[in-house]
Specification:
The complex is a heterodimer of chains A (81) and B (633). Chain A is mainly α. Chain A has helices at 3-18, 39-53, 59-63, 68-80. Chain A contains 4 helices and no strands. Chain B is α/β, with parallel strands linked by helices and 633 residues long. An 8-stranded mixed β-sheet of chain B has the order 15-16-14-13-12-11-10-17, sandwiched between helices. In chain B, strands 2-1-3-4-5 form a 5-stranded parallel β-sheet, sandwiched between helices. In chain B, α8 links the parallel β4 (174-178) and β5 (220-222). Classes of the chains: A mainly alpha (81), B alpha/beta (633).
């Protein structure tokens, strides 16, 4: 799975969790810039991303994310390992 | 394979257009309640569940009529973060007949909230208040070996008692108390069960005290301890979820957690199922009674398979003993289906255990309606246990309010699936329950079907059936011989041939042969039909049907019509004018007595034994459109 596909699937998950079909994410998007992506939504999104890809993140990985690009790379790396 | 309870495998896969269906629900729609329940009765991801939650929320706000779902306002007072879990609850409750409106208090404010009637969570008067906490709330995560946890337990029970009373006085709401799960780690090993200073000992002690408290205060228990055990505590407890989010258990347990809660609220609202309807062949015993005969079906000890089916029967009897009605719904001749119940020594269920016994060749939805009518209970009180995926799909499509658990390929798990799906949740168990099923079996035995058959056209085309007819060949030879020697019911002449004779038919260019295979989107049935026709001795322009048989598993799927079309096509190509056929009556083949009449043959003779002779004008046959795709190779 390429990074583009990972990004697309994450965008789908985020738009479902936020109930907003207009969410557009790129690698540089930060959570604060997305309407509704607050700390509560963040928990749901992280769990939904794990569910979407059938993976479990390490705690330190989750806490060190700065933007969507980090999340995409984390998913990619976790899938590959 | 194994049984992964967290994936709730008894639920069918969610439809791909789940989201669109949710969004399309309109407050003006009829049957909203039934349709919501049907949609919720799938295996849902958290994304599905959250879409469902929003849909239900929207409809509730709009004041839509959601009957027959019962409404329930639930206030949850949690000692931990609930937000991710809460999203699963509305769909799970709808699955169990309840349109729930959930409000969640601030986390870790249980006592403060219970004593604050103006708290936001009580803005709408609750029907029920759920106290949800884990061992950490009582301080049982910190029991020291020098200490005995009983003080903390007494204190917690006391606090809960005051809260429960307060809520009851304030709102007359039903209180629900959760038991607590014991974490998988251990300080002492097996000794923990016995050591008053150990966590496991104290968690046991707390749960017992909670049982007493609930009984005294008329609260309901939500047995989270049992739920976590079922899930496996090593999987239930998720340190990352706790450390980062203060979520008390793993996210992949949320669906099952919500389902357990849904069952409980369903039971509060009287929505638990009341009747278990059992298929027979390959559900209660291994094999097909009509074909295999009573001596060859598999049931009882002596084989793993036989024990699996015995376990299903024992579970059904246990359910009956607690007041659940049993019914039979089988595609079979009545005499055949009754035989094992009456005569097989290893059967556990007897006919006297069955309140309604429906064995016939009519579709199952029609029979389920008859069962519900006879017992005077709603269709939404029925659970159908059936090994056949196509039957299950048909019932779900026609009667979405009937619960129909998926079943795995291995019958060893049937009882697990049925007992884990939570259809029969109870809040109490009374003498009345103990006696209920006896009173039924006395007066209802069998019930007449409504005359008209259901229109199955849509159902059949939705099966995506692919049918293939071919002449006999070496690949099919063994199975052809097997069918010829085994089929008793759908078999017009019951002629038996050896494999060598089958090979002779195969090689004789003057003999028409046909083997039929069928598959659909649920199953590949393999070879299920055989036909042989020979040129008449006294009329070279006529074929005589020598053999025509079919497996009963594919009844009602227009396979016989397709076989006729192939036969007629071949007859035309061979320049034949007529097809002649005979029905030779046996003790077992009554099912096809009218086959040729149905297929448009003209009946020209009938003997006193019931044998019939038919004739068909090949040119006169009109080929109807059938619901199969053909793959005739």
């Amino acid at each position: 799975m390429g990074k583009d596909e990972v990004l697309a699937r994450i965008q789908q998950v985020v738009s479902e969790q936020l109930d907003d079909d207009n969410v557009v994410l790129d690698m540089n998007t930060v959570a604060n810039a997305v309407n509704g992506w607050d700390s509560l939504a963040h928990v749901r999104i992280m769990i939904a991303v794990e569910e979407e890809f059938g993976i479990k993140f390490r705690m330190s990985d989750i806490t060190s994310l700065d933007n969507v690009g980090d999340l995409v790379r984390l998913v990619d790396a976790t899938l590959g390992s | 394979m194994s049984f992964d309870v967290l994936s709730m495998p008894w639920l069918p896969e969610a439809p791909v257009d789940f989201k669109q269906r949710c969004k399309s629900f309109d407050r003006e729609d009829s049957d909203l309640g039934d349709r919501l329940r049907a949609l919720a009765s799938h295996r849902l991801t958290s994304s599905h569940a959250i879409i469902f939650q929003r849909t239900l929320g929207r409809l509730l706000t709009q004041g839509a009529d959601l009957a027959p779902l019962s409404s329930f306002r639930l206030a949850i007072l949690p000692s931990f973060t609930m937000d991710t879990i809460a999203g699963m609850i509305p769909a799970a409750c709808a699955r169990h007949g309840v349109a729930v409106d959930v409000a969640i208090a601030e986390f870790d404010q249980i006592v403060q909230t219970a004593f604050n009637p103006d708290a936001e969570v009580f803005r709408e008067r609750p029907d029920g208040v759920l106290f949800l906490f884990d061992h950490r709330w009582i301080g049982l995560d910190r029991v020291a070996p020098s200490d005995d946890g009983s003080d903390r337990i007494d204190l917690a029970i006391d606090r809960l008692r005051t809260c429960v009373r307060r809520i009851r006085e304030q709102f007359s709401a039903q209180c629900i108390l959760s038991t607590i799960a014991a974490p998988p780690g251990t300080l002492f090993g097996s000794l923990e069960r016995a050591l008053p200073a150990a966590m496991r000992f104290n968690i046991d002690r707390f749960n017992q005290a909670l049982v007493v408290l609930a009984a005294e205060e008329r609260a309901i228990l939500f047995d989270v301890a049992a739920l976590a055990e079922q899930a496996g505590t090593a999987r239930w407890f998720d340190p990352v979820a706790w450390y980062l989010y203060k979520i008390p258990f793993s996210a992949d347990c949320s669906g099952l957690f919500a389902d357990w809660l849904g069952r409980l609220l369903g039971a509060v609202r009287g929505k638990s199922r009341k009747c278990l309807v059992l298929d027979c062949d390959n559900t209660l015993w291994g094999g097909v009674i009509g074909d295999d005969g009573i001596e060859n079906i598999v049931i009882g000890s002596g084989s793993g398979l036989g024990e699996s089916f015995a376990d299903v029967q024992q579970l059904a009897l246990d359910l009956k003993a607690r007041g659940i009605l049993l019914a039979v719904c089988s595609k079979n001749n009545l005499e055949n289906a009754r035989l094992p119940f009456a005569e097989h020594p290893d059967m556990l269920i007897r006919e006297s255990d069955i309140a309604v016994f429906q064995a016939n060749w009519t579709d199952k939805p029609t029979n389920l309606e008859a069962i519900a009518d006879a017992l005077q209970i709603g269709l939404d009180s029925l659970v159908l246990l059936d090994d056949n995926p196509a039957e299950r799909a048909q019932v779900r499509a026609a009667l979405p309010m009937v619960a129909v658990p998926e079943l795995p390929a291995d019958p060893a798990y049937y009882a697990h699936y049925l007992s884990s799906a939570g259809y029969f949740e109870a809040l109490t168990f009374s003498d009345e329950d103990r006696k209920r099923s006896d009173s039924y079996s006395a007066n209802v035995e069998r019930t007449e079907l409504r005359e008209q058959l259901r229109d199955l056209g849509d159902y059949l085309s939705a099966l995506d059936m692919v049918l293939s007819t071919r002449p006999f060949d070496a690949v099919g030879r063994q199975r052809i011989a097997q069918l010829i020697n085994k089929s008793n019911q759908f078999n017009v002449a019951t002629r038996r041939y050896t494999e060598a004779e089958v090979e002779r038919f195969e090689r004789d260019p003057d003999i028409f042969t046909m083997q039929v295979r069928l598959r659909d989107k649920y199953s590949d049935y393999g070879m299920i039909g055989v036909c042989i026709a020979t040129t008449s001795e006294n009329d070279a322009t006529a074929w005589d049907v020598d053999t025509w048989l079919m497996s009963c598993r594919v009844l009602g799927r227009k396979v016989e019509e397709a076989m006729l079309q192939t036969l007629v096509g071949a007859a035309r190509e061979a320049g034949k004018m007529t097809i002649r056929a005979r029905y030779l009556r046996t003790a077992k083949n009554n099912m096809v007595a009218d086959l040729f009449d149905r297929l448009g043959f003209e009946r020209i003779d009938e003997t006193s034994d019931g044998d019939r002779t038919y004739c068909l004008d090949v040119e006169g046959v009109e080929l109807e459109k059938l619901p199969h795709t053909r793959d005739d190779g």
